[in-house]
Design brief:
The structure holds two protein chains of two kinds.
Chain A (H helix, E strand, L loop, with lengths): L1 H18 L13 H21 L13 H20 L6 H24 L11 H7 L2 H11 L3 H21 L2 H7 L1
Chain B lengths: L6 H8 L2 H27 L2 H18 L9 H24 L3 H14 L7 H11 L3 H12 L4 H8 L3 H25 L7
């Protein structure tokens, strides 16, 4: 009880101090606010009552018949139309410009290369050494012999050599052949 | 004996379809101002208070038929309005993603530029001091200091015991006294804004 009395006294002292603080004015409200507030609340309630009693009354905007059935198609059409307008056929301007420059460069390089390379057979100068490097000894002999009119004999000789080889294989001991190899 | 019709009689009339509208109008006229000021001290801004008061009375219209009269009508109305105001602040806090302390601080800052606040510097300091209190202490302080409510009435509204309410009020007045004393050491008062 003593503690409560002490608390009550402290509350009383603090309240007196706060009330002595020179407070003037404070919250206020617009002119005629409370008259309008009551009217607004009553209007809102009447409106709600009206709606709840007459559920068939549709207060608000109306849309044309079958509007929502065609709405999706219309939006899709618009989206596609917008999309087509936005897609650039050749990409950004800088990219097409760069591509053009690269194409011209390749064409110039190709032009230089092909113009410097092709020469007629008469223009090609081959030394005997070049030919010797390219041909084996067998090729050279065969060509020379053919040029000299020995082509038929050369073929016959090849077949004879083959027959002779087969006969030799048949007559020779297998071990000797292995040793030869 | 007062010729004014009592709240209890108005509630009985409200339950009759033919008298419902008129009874509600009477209750509205009787309590809209009191409820506005109670709500205004919680939400601070006039526009916010306007929204909360309208929502409060629309709820009263919807729920009054179910009111069981265990408590006085005004206590019940006060509770509905307080809950609406606190829910409004909670929503505001959630929308801004800030704490209740931060919200109350911002409400204090808004007060300076509020077209419907004409208090002097002392009034502004007092309001900011009240806004620095925790939510429950702020409610208790407003009810006791401005509305002069009794602790048992506050108990019915807030659902808190009389002892706890008295302790809350004690903390609140001590803190406000301290803030006011500190401000007195730094400023001059008495001139209107």
């Amino acid at each position: 009880m003593g503690a409560l009395t002490s608390m009550d006294q402290e509350i009383k002292n603090s309240e007196e101090f706060i009330r002595a603080f020179p407070v003037e004015g404070g919250f206020n409200e617009p002119v005629n606010y409370f008259e309008e507030l009551d009217a607004d609340i009553l209007l809102e309630i009447r409106l709600r009552e009206l709606i709840s009693k007459n559920e068939n009354i549709e207060i608000g905007f109306e849309v044309p018949g079958s509007y929502f059935e065609t709405l999706t198609e219309k939006i899709q059409g618009k989206v596609e139309e917008k999309g087509a307008k936005k897609i650039a056929l050749f990409g950004p301007y800088w990219l097409s410009k760069l591509t053009g420059i690269a194409a011209i460069f390749i064409m110039l390089v190709g032009l230089v290369f092909f113009r410097s390379e092709p020469k007629s057979i008469s223009e090609i100068k081959l030394t005997e050494e070049d030919i010797a490097n390219e041909l084996s000894l067998g090729d050279l002999n065969a060509v020379l012999l053919c040029d000299a009119g020995w082509c038929n004999e050369l073929e016959g000789l090849g077949q004879t050599n083959k027959k002779n080889s087969e006969i030799w294989i048949e007559e020779t001991d297998l071990e000797l052949i292995i040793e030869e190899l | 004996m007062s010729s004014e019709i009592s709240d209890k009689e108005l509630i009985q009339q409200f339950r009759l379809a033919s008298l419902k509208q008129r009874a509600f109008e009477q209750l509205l006229k009787r309590y809209s101002r009191k409820i506005y000021w109670q709500v205004r001290r919680i939400v601070i801004s006039h526009d916010d208070a306007d929204d909360v008061v309208q929502n409060t009375f629309i709820k009263v219209w919807e729920k009054l038929e179910d009111f069981r009269e265990d408590s006085q009508f005004y206590t019940w109305l006060y509770r509905v309005a307080t809950n609406e105001a606190l829910a409004f602040l909670q929503k505001k806090k959630a929308d801004r993603n800030i704490s209740m302390e931060e919200l109350q601080e911002s409400l204090g800052e808004q007060l300076v530029a509020d077209a419907y606040f004409n208090g002097n510097q002392a009034s502004l300091i007092l309001q900011k001091a009240i806004l620095s209190l925790p939510e429950k202490q702020r409610l208790v302080f407003n009810m006791k200091y401005f509305d002069n409510m009794k602790y048992d009435e506050m108990e019915a509204v807030l659902g808190t015991s009389v002892g706890a309410l008295k302790a809350s009020y004690h903390h609140a007045v001590k803190k406000i006294e301290l803030i006011v004393k500190e401000s007195l050491n730094h400023s001059n008062f008495g001139s209107s804004n």
